[in-house]
Amino acid sequence: MSVKTVEEVSAQVPPEDFQALEEKVYRTIELYKAAKEARATAERDVKRLREQLEEREEQNETMRRELVQLRKDREDIRTRVEKMLSQMWTPRCARYPSRLQPSTRCGWPCWRR
Questions:
Q1: Beta strands of 1-113 (E only): which ranges?
Q2: pLDDT above 80 for 56
Q3: pLDDT value for 88
């Protein structure tokens, strides 16, 4: 727009309208700045939350693997204990089958003569 055109428009439009228009432009600029800042903040938050989610997923996977290993270890130990108990009681039962009676003093399946 040329200077001559601006002068012509200025002469035709009252100054109050220019002030109102100027205020609207400044408010629009401020709203744009605020929206731009809010968007940058939101993008930072999204990035931080994605990083946290990634960490949690890694922790979850690690804990899941550890839980599977612990369950396997527990089952192995259970099998070994059952085998040891079986070896402790079986020879006595085989050696004295006619003289054994179950003992109910303790809660264990032990035998006495």
A1: 101-102, 111-112
A2: yes
A3: 74
Torsion sign (Cα): 54, 60, 62, 64? negative
pLDDT tens for each residue of 23-40: 999 999 999 999 999 999
Residue whose C-alpha is closest to residue 102's, from 81, 86, 92: 92
Residue 56: partners with Cβ closer than 8 Å, 6 or more residues away: none
This prediction has a pTM of 0.49
Q: What does R_g of the chain's alpha carbons equal in angstroms?
A: 43
d(CA 25, CA 73): 71
Are 110 and 86 a contacting pair, CB within 8 Å? no
| Tally of CA atoms within 13 A in the half-sphere of 73 that contains its CB | 6
**Tokens, residue 7:** 């002068």
> For residues 92 and 99, what is the distance between their CA atoms, to the nearest angstrom?
10
Q: What is the rounded average pLDDT for all residues in the chain?
A: 80
Q: Dmax over Cα atoms in the chain, in whole Å?
A: 127
Residue 47 confidence (pLDDT) = 97
